[in-house]
TrEMBL record:
A Pfam cross-reference name: DapB_C
First-listed, main subcellular location of the protein, grouped into a coarse class: cytoplasm
Enzyme Commission number(s) from the entry: 1.17.1.8
Protein keywords: Amino-acid biosynthesis, Cytoplasm, Diaminopimelate biosynthesis, Lysine biosynthesis, NAD, NADP, Oxidoreductase
Ligand binding (NAD(+)): G11, P12, R13, G14, R15, M16, G100, T101, S102, A126, P127, N128, F129
InterPro entries referenced in this protein's UniProt entry, alphabetically: DapB_C, DapB_N, DapB_N_CS, DHDPR_bac, NAD(P)-bd_dom_sf
Protein name per UniProt: 4-hydroxy-tetrahydrodipicolinate reductase
Family classification: Belongs to the DapB family.
Length: 267
């Protein structure tokens, strides 16, 4: 039998980390080698509530983890600052990173791309692992060629820390590659309440909604003369992301550069 892919998960108690560890436990060619948390040093995954019965050690220091545990892939599902530090540690130790954590800037991405290019180390930063969400990004890019007036509404649960979502930013970046920069709305429009028109990237507006009960949702609206095209994706639970996480882990084993966005590796 082929060797299993040995994975470290950072953020094991979180909503995504928990779902990911369950997915790993059910995937025959994956093995949870260890986890990185900011507490529970020395404990095991099986000791934590809601996690499967796997005897994998928990480290609070990612460098100690990589020094002690043979690791093929790091999956990071934490917060932006921790995610960046974990990605840097993975690069330093030659571990392939799969980063789901949102909130990285384009400067961060470029810096890591350059560093990993030099080391010929494969990695993936995926603003969204849900296949439907990735398709909406691709379809949005296609549509913006014909409909340059675009607004994005992203809707998430109220525990989300970053706004706008990584998915909305990536969607806007893909749209900007084909859409000429243009100021949308009336040239003299004025906000009578600050923020009414949302965030703006080269004239394209992004609106962030945070409500209990939501998981992760996005609408991309394209306005034309007498018509409106709406592309919408809904993640109703975190299982929706697991096909993409599994695919990213398998694919990163074959890469020698950092890939930003699952759309770049989907057939
Ligand atoms: N790419 C994608 O498809 C998706 C990406 N995400 C992104 O993934 C990230 C996690 O989301 P979610 O699971 O909902 O968030 P949670 O807040 O539920 O989970 C984050 C976990 O990381 C832990 N954590 C914080 N700092 C550290 C650290 N230094 N080392 C290790 N663990 C740490 C937190 O612990 P504590 O609570 O004690 O602070 C928490 O358990 C977010 O950035 C989110 O935007 C989410 C869904 C899909
Ligand atoms: O925090 C979340 O939940 C999500 N974050 C990612 C993002 O910022 O786009 C992906 C997905 O939308 C869920």
């Amino acid at each position: 039998m082929e060797n299993k892919i040995r994975i470290v998960v950072a953020g094991p108690r979180g909503r995504m980390g928990t779902e990911t560890i369950h997915m790993i436990s059910k995937t025959p060619h994956f093995e949870l080698a260890a986890a990185v948390d900011h507490k529970n040093e020395g404990m095991s995954i099986k000791d934590l509530e809601g996690l499967p019965d796997i005897d994998a050690p928990i480290y609070t220091d990612i460098k100690a983890c990589f020094s002690n545990v043979e690791t093929d892939v790091l999956i990071d599902l934490t917060h932006p600052e921790a995610g960046k530090a974990h990605l840097q540690a993975a690069v330093d130790y030659g571990v392939r990173p799969v980063i789901g954590t949102s909130g990285f800037t384009s400067e961060d991405v470029v810096r890591f791309e350059q560093e990993m290019e030099k080391k010929r180390l494969g990695g993936i930063i995926a603003p969204n692992f849900a296949i439907g969400a990735v398709l909406v990004m691709k379809f949005s890019q296609m549509a913006s060629k014909y409909f340059p007036d675009v607004e994005i509404i992203e809707l998430h649960h109220d525990q989300k820390r970053d706004a706008p979502s990584g998915t909305a930013v990536k969607t806007a970046e893909l749209v900007q590659k084909v859409r000429e920069s243009k100021q949308q709305g009336h040239p003299d429009e004025k906000e009578t309440i600050q923020g009414a028109r949302g965030a703006e990237i080269e004239g394209l507006h992004i609106h962030s909604v945070r409500l209990p009960g939501l998981v992760a949702h996005q609408e991309v609206l394209f306005g034309g003369e007498g018509e409106l095209l709406t592309l919408r994706h809904d993640s109703f639970n975190r299982k929706s992301f697991m096909t993409g996480v599994r695919y990213a882990v398998e694919t990163v084993m074959t890469l020698e550069t950092l890939v930003y966005g699952l759309e770049n590796i989907l057939d």
